[in-house]
Amino acid sequence: MEPVIGIDLGTTNSEVAFVFDGHVNIIERNGSGIVPSCVGLTDEGNIIVGNEARNQAVVAPDRTVSSIKRKMGQDEKVCLGNSEFSPQEVSAFILKYLKEASEQKIGRPIRKAVITVPAYFTDAQRQATREAGEIAGLQVVRIINEPTAAALAYENDNPETQQILVYDLGGGTFDVSIVKIEDSVVEVLSSTGDNHLGGDDFDQRLINHMVRHLETEQKIEINTDPKILARLKRAAETAKIALSDAPFATIEEDHIFKTAHQDIHLSMEISRFDFEQMIEADLTRTMESVNKALKDARMLPSAIDKIILVGGSTKIPLVSQMLEKNFNKQPLGHIDPDLCVALGAGIQAAREMGITNSGVLVDITPYTFGTSAIGEIDGTPSMTMFYPLIRRNTKLPAKKSDAFLTVVDNQEAVDVRVYQGEHPDAEDNVLLGNYIFNLTKAPAGSEIIMVFDLDLNGILKIHAVEKESGKSINATIENAISRFSNQELLETQNRINGLWAQSHQEVESDSSVATTVPASIPPHYSEVIEKARKIMTDASEDDREDIVNAIEDLQEALKENRLSDAEQLKNDLDDILFYLEI
Amino acid sequence: MRALIRGLTSARKVSETKGIFRKPPKGIEGVVEGYEMTLRRLDRALSYASIAPVDTVGRPFDPTTMQAIDKKSAPDVSPGEVLEQIRSGFIRGGEVLRTAQVVVNTLEK
Question: Distance between CA A492 and CA A430 in Å, rounded?
Answer without folding.
Answer: 7
